[in-house]
Amino acid sequence: MTFEFGSLFRPRLPAAAAAPFAGYPKYYFVGGNNDADTVPTKKLGEIAKAVLEREGSILALYGVGHGPQGYLPLRQFIAKTLHQKAALACHVDEILVTSGSLQALDLVNNLFLEPGDTVLAEEASYGGAVSRLKALGANVIGIDMDEDGMRMDHLRQVLADLKRHGIRPKFIYTIPTVQNPSGTVLTTARRLELLEIAELFEIPIFEDDCYADLLWEGERPPAIRALDKTGRVIYCGSFSKLIAPGFRVGYIVADWRIIAQILPTKKDGGSGALEQMVLAEFAASEFDQHVAKLSGVLRDKCQVMADALEEHFGTTAEFAMPKGGIFIWITLPDIVNTSELAKAALAEGVEINPGAEWVVDPATGKNRMRLCFASPSKQQIRDGVKLLAEICHRETGVPVRSANVARP
Amino acid sequence: MTFEFGSLFRPRLPAAAAAPFAGYPKYYFVGGNNDADTVPTKKLGEIAKAVLEREGSILALYGVGHGPQGYLPLRQFIAKTLHQKAALACHVDEILVTSGSLQALDLVNNLFLEPGDTVLAEEASYGGAVSRLKALGANVIGIDMDEDGMRMDHLRQVLADLKRHGIRPKFIYTIPTVQNPSGTVLTTARRLELLEIAELFEIPIFEDDCYADLLWEGERPPAIRALDKTGRVIYCGSFSKLIAPGFRVGYIVADWRIIAQILPTKKDGGSGALEQMVLAEFAASEFDQHVAKLSGVLRDKCQVMADALEEHFGTTAEFAMPKGGIFIWITLPDIVNTSELAKAALAEGVEINPGAEWVVDPATGKNRMRLCFASPSKQQIRDGVKLLAEICHRETGVPVRSANVARP
User: Fold this and answer.
1) Does the distance separating the beta carbons of A240 and B248 come in below 8 Å?
2) B11 in contact with A at a CB cutoff of 8 Å?
3) Contact by Cβ (8 Å): A183, A330
4) Which CATH number among 3.40.50.720, 3.90.1150.10, 3.40.350.10, 2.20.28.10 corresponds to the domain B23-39+288-406?
5) Domain boundaries in chain A?
6) pLDDT number for residue A252
7) Which of A37, A405, B275, B397 has the most CB atoms less than 10 A away?
8) What ipTM did this prediction achieve?
9) How far apart are CA A114 and CA A99, in angstroms?
């Protein structure tokens, strides 16, 4: 007879998966999947062979003998590239390699948060970050944004309100460069103002810079951590979006005192070493040129998606062209509920991120959606957006016109 | 001015790391590090190149397009090898690849445990498992052991006592095959009795089989999960000890209803895919022959350590020869406190696991220690055990004789 576990599970587990994974839908516009043709398989293969033959025996040691902070040549590369690209100077002891930036989020959240704590974030923000914060019982407050990212006037006002109520937030979570989902870039002036405000209210900053390398328009500003003189900024980054998400390699950069406090909570025996070894070797010789190529491919696909949106949704779909990254953040007319649209679309093979899952207050995302363009082919983007517009028209009456032709 | 985080950290964090990793001590007898010469670097290199060139572009997809349960060929290999070696039949949908078996422990613990819950385990057990359970606020109860592993008479008695007090444990955590640290193997008769008792008291079993492939003496018994007809057993295993701990690849095998409930709590974007791909390809053609070779090397090193213990500690060090694995569990005379000994030894370059950290009730481990033999060379084993005996004599007066010569 089958054993009944039910009453033994702890309370408040998330809903169980309905069925094993059965493949992606035909038009998959969600998630961080990357352009498959751009994965440098041949070069990675050569490098994996070389690095394994040369020093593969260090895999016999947890942390490959370099300790729990990660493979030393990878940390050296991270230090070098952050210095060059983000004006961020750091010592290898101030870097902790993580299993993707998702683990970085978990480790930093775990350092600060108990149920009831308050955290600030951009009003529209990475769904995986917002859901993690809420699952931990945090009170997440969204800060308004404009075309330059988080609005400092609103941040100041929210912090002043909280202070009047005796509430000191645990940190400000921000994605300043190629913000997810808006694609905006926080200006250097705002970064400096953010630090001034954080100083005034005595708040740390958690800077998530996962997409910063995929900026294709304008200069990359200095990291917020690079501009800070107080050590209040905990920075994280990732290689998942730059090489391939199958590589689970991210990192935290923070003062040693913070790394020291995180280390005993990272109880995983170290992050995967082969990936670190291959990435370090690849990055040392190929990184800039690979990222430039990838950015070009993404920029092209972004344009294809923007064109398809314009053709099939017309002025019904409002969006700002992203300055980099892998997604477009779209506002539809008020009458559209994108959570409903997402269900109808999925039934016909089009998957989208409904806005409610990508904002702090679900109501602000009701008529918004995020569409990712890195993984689908250009033809899939064209066909999928066309189909999405048809479904949207059928379900909601908008868009009224597509491809300059009134819909029946 | 440096920002002061102190009061913002959550309460009850573990103590911060004192300093960045500064290398292993000369005689490193702790942890799961493996024999470096046995890592098949050349073969792994060839395989990594082949698999990346052939299908590296799937790394562009989270879960390489095979979903959150892991790379399909690896799950197919796990299903095949468990069927052959442990009489355990399972479908690929009943397998969840994890980032080492440490993540498997975290996921299963998270499924069941709240502070105050009760868990049973062998009295001497894996330090990383016991510390995790205690950190979650679980009340861990140790079950007595003998040369055949966990004693069923004691288990029955403990469960009856708990039942009288209205306590139903959340699960029994057991390492039945090459138990850590004792090296014992639970007999098939006891496995059947364990299932009978679990049925009687309506308790699930969490079977940790990480070392089972490294058995070099006697037949490997069927997995407890293989003998069960109720689906109450959650099984986990690992490749870390078989290929290299730098590969963070473990797995859970359980009914789909359990996997389904764990999946939404595994929020890491999938475990490292390159390692899974390389391991699957390596395992398909090389696994048995590699494990046989590794077992031979470990058995030799185990004998060297046993001989060194006999030479330098004489009858002062009591231990049973392990039937496999990478460690020897040693009992010293009552007057020795191995936690003190470990400190004195570390100061002279010898690191050991004091028994108190490898048991449920620290008092039962006071005069015990675990020594790992996989990673150090034979000469390091000989020299390190000799030095450890000298330090032990100096600190505690025992052993009185070493190498048949009375110590001064």
Assistant:
1) no
2) yes
3) no
4) 3.90.1150.10
5) 23-40+288-406, 41-286
6) 98
7) B275
8) 0.95
9) 23
Q: Does residue B246 have a pLDDT over 90?
A: no
CB distance A152 to A193 below 8 Å: yes
Concatenated DSSP letters for A263-288? GGG--SSSS-HHHHHHHHHHHHHHHH
Picking from B52, B63, B244, the nearest residue to A48 by CB comes out as B52
Are A100 and B128 in contact (CB < 8 Å)? Answer: no
Question: CB-based contacts of A220: which residues, under 8 Å, 6+ apart?
Answer: A85, A86, A177, A212
| pLDDT score for A1 | 86
Confidence at B408, pLDDT banded by 50, 70, 90? low
The top-level CATH class assigned to B41-286 is: alpha beta
DSSP string, A199-235: HHHT--EEEE-TTGGGB-SSPPPPPHHHH-SSS-EEE
Return the DSSP state at A319.
-
Show the tokens assigned to B210: 């990480």
Res A241: pLDDT: 87
Confidence of residue B4 (pLDDT cuts 50, 70, 90): very high
CB B62 within 8 A of CB B269: yes
What is the amino acid identity at position B105?
L
Q: Please state, in angstroms and rounded to a whole number, the distance separating the CA atoms of residues B216 and B245.
A: 20
For residue B228, give Cα distances in angstroms to A291, B173, B247: 52, 15, 30
pTM of the model: 0.96
Rounded CA gap, B239 and B243, in Å? Answer: 6
Task: Flag residues of chain A having pLDDT under 70.
Answer: 404, 408
Question: Check: CATH 3.40.50.300 for A23-40+288-406?
Answer: no
Can A23-40+288-406 and A41-286 be said to share one CATH topology? no
Residue numbers in A near B34 (CB within 8 A): 60-61
